[in-house]
Specification:
298 residues, alpha/beta, six-stranded mixed beta sheet, elongated
Length: 298
């Protein structure tokens, strides 16, 4: 039966009320109750490891074939062979520059929000850090550490506790960057390639126990055309710094307060954050020249 008069108006008002309530909830969810975690509470902080994968593989949405973003495997021999094969590939040859830049961004952000960083010389002299050398040798076949660091994962509460004890740190932090490329829609039919960065951050307290573990992802706002398996690798690698800055800023904002200082960390310490979706309009802008496009999809 068709509703008229008061009932029709009541139905409309109810729907409006639901919409307003939904908007109200969305606006304030950014400052919802969260774990009482502030990075400055773990200062001075030991930055134990900063590293990344050693190539720029395609992002696999289901993650089944490539969960860690690495395409290199097979040990030291295969890694050395890849260096020869990919010696003219900017995506592969700029890996050290890329992770070093990411490390600088990460460290500058921590210090910029008031976190005192324990000298890496002091960290590297601890027995607990030196004991991770064998793990470092095993992981360097597929991962690349930032200059001055080893590739170490965050496992081992006792090691983290010993590092904190020997250095006087209030916390130990590990940062893993995963560099990938992703096909994105450009207009109705065209495809572009954007740079994708994932940051995994693990923080342990002075007792070596987990304080937080978070994952952040971001796509570069710029992209290059993808045409018949061709894209400009040289242009693509130039887009990583923006995506790196995005994931680092997401982490810093979550654990030093909102932009207006009205609230503190707003997400659980075990979760994953995706950056704001990039609209198709952002990809309709004129792309960088792909005069240096390489042929052949990876």
């Amino acid at each position: 039966m068709k509703k008229t008069g008061f009932m029709a108006g009541f139905g409309y008002a109810s729907r409006c009320a639901l919409v307003v309530l939904s908007l109200f909830t969305s606006v304030f969810s950014g400052c919802k109750s969260a774990p009482n975690i502030d990075l400055t509470d773990y200062s001075p902080m030991a930055v134990v490891s900063i590293y990344s994968n050693s190539s720029v593989p395609w992002y696999d949405r289901d993650g089944a074939r490539n969960p860690d973003g690495n395409t290199n495997s097979g040990g030291l021999v295969t890694s050395s062979l890849n260096k020869v094969i990919e010696q003219n590939n900017p995506e592969y040859m700029t890996v050290q520059e890329r992770i070093d830049g990411a490390a600088r961004t990460f460290l500058d952000a921590l210090e910029g929000c008031g976190v005192e960083i324990v000298s890496m010389d002091k960290v590297s002299e601890t027995q607990a850090y030196k004991s991770g050398y064998n793990q470092f040798i095993q992981k360097t076949t597929t991962s690349t550490p930032a200059e001055g660091y080893m590739v170490l994962d965050y496992s081992g509460n006792s090691r983290n506790r010993m590092i904190a004890t020997e250095t006087g740190a209030s916390g130990s932090i590990f940062a893993e960057f995963i560099f990938q490329k992703e096909k994105v829609q450009s207009g109705l039919h065209d495809l572009n390639v954007a740079a994708k960065v994932t940051l995994k951050v693990y923080l342990a307290d002075s007792d070596g126990k987990k304080a937080l573990y978070r994952t952040y992802s971001s796509l570069s706002p710029k992209s290059v055309p993808f045409d018949n398996g061709n894209w400009s690798r040289a242009s693509l690698v130039e887009f990583f710094p923006d995506a790196i800055e995005s994931v680092v800023n997401q982490f810093i904002m979550d654990y030093t307060g909102c932009s207006d200082g009205s609230c503190t960390a707003s997400l659980p310490e075990d979760s994953e954050t995706q950056s704001t979706s990039i609209s198709p309009d952002m990809f309709r802008q004129k792309s960088d020249s792909d005069s240096d496009s390489d042929s052949g999809a990876e």
